[in-house]
Structures are given as structure tokens and as C-alpha cells.
Write the C-alpha cells for this entry.
Amino acid sequence: MGEADLKVPDLSTVHSIYGLNGHQSLLLGFIVCICGALFGLFQYWQIKRLPVHKSMKDVSELIYTTCKAYLIQQGKFILILEVLIGIVMVIYFGCLRHCDAGRVILILICSLIGIAGSYGVAWFGMRINTLANSRSAFASLGGKPFPVHCIPLQAGMSIGMLLISVELFVMLCILLFVSPDNAGACFIGFAIGESLGASVLRIAGGIFTKIADIGADLMKIVLNMKEDDARNPGVIADCVGDNAGDSVGPTADGFETYGVTAVALISFILLGVKNPLDQAQLLVWIFSIGLVMLVASGLSYEISHFIAEKKYLYAVDMNFEDPLTFLIWTTSLVSVALTYLASYILIPRLEDGTFWWKLASIISCGTLAGALIPEVVKKFTSMDSAFVKNIYECSKKGGASLNILAGLVAGNFSAFWMGLVIVMLMALAYFISLLGLGHLMLAPTVFAFGLVAFGFLGMGPVTIAVDSYGPVSDNAQSVYELSLIESIPNIKKEIHADYGFEPNFENAKHFLEENDGAGNTFKATAKPVLIGTAVVGATTMIFSIIMILTKGLTVNLENLSLLYPPFFLGLLSGGAVIYWFTGASIQAVTAGAYHTVQYIKEHIKLDGERALTEDSAKVVGICTMFAQEGMINLFLTILFLTLSFACLDPFYFIGYLISLAIFGLYQAIFMANAGGAWDNAKKLVEVTYKEKGTDVHAATVVGDTVGDPFKDTSSVALNPTIKFTTLFGLLAIEIAIGLNRSLDIGLAVVFFAVALVFLYRSFYKMRIV
């Protein structure tokens, strides 16, 4: 059985709540989705109505306009790639599986809907963040910290609630309104589309943002300029990059992560559970839990906001990390409680009557991971972390060299402890899966791992919110400086007359910088959650491929062994690709940053008040060009390697996918947390010790520029890359096993040769000469 044969069972056979059957109860889920989307749109409307000075609004609108042009360009390229992916889908579904034209068109439409979903929520995230940055900057003038915290979080929750609501709405439409014979294939098409969109936006955005960030930051050393100096043409590009890389990319990534993980579980249920009634009960349960967790996130936000407002509204100082931590733990605990309650109501009689608490316990392992992982990450990236303070001390005594070494230490230690946390939670899920789940399905442990990944995403709106908090807090600081509001004649009288308060510029700058440090920390906490989900979810998807190759775990099992050489060689190959990928993505940033710095040095006007618009536009153009070139090389290499390795040997390909996931997990965690530690070591110098312009500050700026592509380019791009490779591999492997062996080998050689062309270009066409 392949993807074209996945058939959704009759959901009306399931007895649900209040006398409703499964199909009817999930129809009520549309109400939850619509309410969640309206919640997000209401937050957007509230932010848009907040007061903002014209000088700050003009800056944020310039950032938005430039981001819009960038995103339109990326959208065109995504559609070009969709043509290539669409051809593969037509070959598989139309030629090999002999689906009729109407069915193939339906699957392609679902793929386009997936792209539109990733692209649409990314656009929404970019728009609300460019509204929130200027509002947050203006709110800081009141001299109180709470509004500086409140606005970025409100923007993040708007994105998170809308994103998950749209995702669940589309998936419910496929489940409930597409015919059972076509729904499984449509889920695959939808997931491939959203994965394609997320991969492009995440890779290109990650390259763009760090080219701009490094170019702007190095001016602080080269020309001894202050942070976000309006004379620096790179600052506008940096602000655009904050949105292109840290808003557009993560938003599309979050949308895709949720969808692909859900599709992996759906595929497992349809392949690994034989009884159609059990399949139907599990599908209704999975979707219901997703809806319940959406409600839990919105409820938890309102609770935590109420408490934070009572505690900090009139405070003159606050720890910006505390309310974010409280929100995460509140959401986790509320989600766990509602998961048990919903499971008891929905599946009390599944099998022997104990499965409701067993499945709820497994999914809760992932939900708790969503709270535990940020706690571990903070031990390595927070400004209060011993590892970050160690980087600062090393910078004082040994300059940039010891700064970089200390950051590498933080990243490596974090990978060890993060690995232990993930392993322990997955081990707990494994032991629970031994309590009779094997009577219900094949390979219950794999299903348990998939549920852990889904549990990771149970806090999806909040995870997205704290991730989006970072670019808004970062941009707010930049908008403040670029507005030159302090130099506007009679500005204090104007603000007092128009807005009714006396601006406090010193407090404003201090709180914006301090909040930026909190944003750095919580951007770092979201990354391991997403990469962990990618890897654990990939495990479930890989199982679907194994089910195809072994005909339901009945034949060829001996090939899934180290004793089978192709499988072992595949394990070696995945690690090699991960290291090339991180090197090539950093090289794209390095080459772009070099040309950006050169341009800025030659065109900066130090005797002026602000950079010329055309100079800023040119810097944005340089960043865009290298982001596009780097992304093309990276994505097409991965695409053609996937096709090549799938054709070479199916069990070699399985080994490759497993290796890609495991190597990618630890490489991404190491790079993300090392980068976060370097970033906040610089922030420690700027905010806590007030040592800007000193040698120790220069050393931490160098460390931060090393960490930039670590945390915001290479590490984050691995997440959608792993998922796209695994998901697209489902089609590639079935195409390969449907062809004769000679043709497979020939295609493997051709695809590998094409991949080598783009792999060669990823360094030699990007190098500095």
C-alpha cells in the first residue's frame, strides 16, 4: 500500500460526545478554528490601533514595504519550484499509480493550498510584526517596562493562534469533505506544498537576515558606530532581515511543522492500524486533541496576561523573561489537563478501556517537553546563564578568540543536555507504548514517538508567539534609533500635547535593549522545539516508507540492519550531507556579508544624519541576491540528492533519512544554542555592564557575528529540510521501486550529477575572490 492507496475510514461509525458521531463532532471543530482565527485577527486590530509617532511609523512602513518586495520575489520562485515538484507528483500519481486526471488535479490543488498556507501566514506574521515594532518602540517612551513586553507577545499570539487555526481548518476540510479514497493522497499533497513553501522561505530568509545583520554589526567595530546608527545603510536591511528571517521563516516553518507532523500520524494510523473502526476513533481523537490544545493556548495566554498585567503594569522595572516562562508553563499544564479530560471523553472504550490514559500520557510527554526544553535552553542562552557569563569573562581576558571558544563550549554542552531531555521523554513514551498498544497497531513505539512530536506542537500558538517575540523586540530597538525621535524639535511638548505623557528617553532605550535580550533567549528556546519535532515526526514518516518496502513488516526486514551494507552506507551519507548543508549555508552568508560590508564602507556618509534611501536599497538588493543564489544551490542539491538516493537503493535511502534526522538534530541544537549564547553575551555587555565601544564589546560583537549564521541560518534551515526530504522521499521511493533496476541506477547517476553541479556552486560560485 502506498500514498495513493491511503483510505480514510468512515468517521460516522465513531460514537463521540452528546450523541454525535465522529464526523459531526469534528464539524464543530470549524467553530473552534474560526474563533481561533478571529482571536488572532482581533489582536492584530488592537495592535494596529495603538498610538505611534509618525517618525516611528514611517520607519516601520519602510521596513514593511521592503519586506513585501522581498516576499513577492520569493513567492515567484516557490511557484517555479512547484512546477518541478508537480511534475514528480504527476508522474507518481498519474503514471505509476494510474490515478484519473481529476484525482491528480485535486492532489495538485491541495499542494498549492499548502504553499498558500505557508506563504499566507508568513505574510501575516511579517505585517503584524512591522506594526508591532513601531508601537512597541513608541510605548517604551512612557518609561515603564510592561508595554515593551506586552506588545511583542500580543503580536506573537496573534500569529500563533491564526496559524494553527488555519492549519486545522484546512486539514479538517480535507478529512471531512474530500472523498475517503482521495483524502489520504490529498493530505500528502498538502504537506508537500507547505513543506516546499516553508523550506524556501526558511532557507532564503535565514541567509538574508544574517548577511544584513553581520553587515550592520561589523560597522560598530570598523567605524566605531553605535547600535542601529541611522547613518548606517545596513540597518534598514537588518530590520528587513529580522522580518524575512526571524518572522517570515519561522511562521512558515511552524505552519509546515504542525501539518507535516499531523500528516505523518495520519499516514501511520492508516498504514499501521488494521481495524477501520480503530482508525476512525484515533483520527477523531487526534484532531480533537489539536482543537483542545488550540483552546488551551488561547486560555493560557489570557490567564498569564491578566496576572502579568496585575503584577507589572505600574512597575518601574521587570524581568522580561519571567512572564514568558510563566506563559509557557501555564500552557503546558493546561494542555496536559485538557488532553486527559478530552481523551477520557472521546475514547473511554477504545480496546480494553485503558487506552485513553495511555495515549494521553504519551502525548503529554511531548507537551511537557514544550516547557522543559525552554528551561534547559535558558541555562545556556539567557543573560543570567553561567555559560553566557563565561563568554563575557573570556572576552574580557582573551578577546574574540576566547569568546568564540567559550560559545562553542556552550553549544556543545547544550546539545548533550538537550539530547538527554528528548531521549528521556521519548523513552517514557516507549515504555507506555509497551502497555498493550501492540494489540491495536503495528510498531506502537513509532506511533508513540509521533504522538510525542504532536505533543511538542500542542503548545503551537505559544511556541510561535515566543519565537515571534524576538524579531519584534529587536526591530523595536532599531525603529527607535532610526526614527531619530530624540532630535526632533520640541518633541517632548509634542508628545505631551498629542499623547498625554512626558517621554523618558533613557528608560525607553534601556528597556528596549533589555527586552531584546529576552527576545534572543526565547527565540533560542523555540528552535529546539521545532527541530525536535522535525526529527521525531520524521521517525513516523520514515516508518511509512518502511511499511511500503516491507509490505507491512512481512518481508525484507533483514535489510534494515547494519549487516546490510547499503543501509549502513546510507547512515554514513546522511551525516555528510548535514555538514555540507551547514557549511554551504554559512558560505552564502559569508559571501553576502563581505559584499555588504564593502558597499557600506564605500558609501556611508558619516557627516550626515541618516543613510540615503538608495544606499539602503542597494544593501537590501545585495542581501536578496545572495539569499536567492544560496537558497537555489541548497534546495536543489537536497532535492536531487533525495531523488538520486531513492533510486540508488531503497534501504540505503532509509539509512540516509535516519542519519539525516539524527545528525541534523544535534547539529541544529549545537548551532542554535551557541549562537544564542554569543548573542546574549554581547547583550550582557551592552545592557548590564554598559560597556559599549570597549574592547570587550568589540570581542562580543565578533562572537555574535559568528553566531548569527549558526543560530538563524544553518540550524533553523535544517528543520524544514529534514521534513521535506522525508516527505518528498515518500514519493521518490515509490517511483523508484516502480521502475526497473537498470533505469533506477541510471537515474540515480543522472540526479547525483545534477546535485553535484549545485553542490559545487554552493562554494565555488559563492566564494570571495
Summary: The CA atoms of residues 494 and 509 lie 19 Å apart. The mean pLDDT is 90. The longest helix spans residues 386-433.
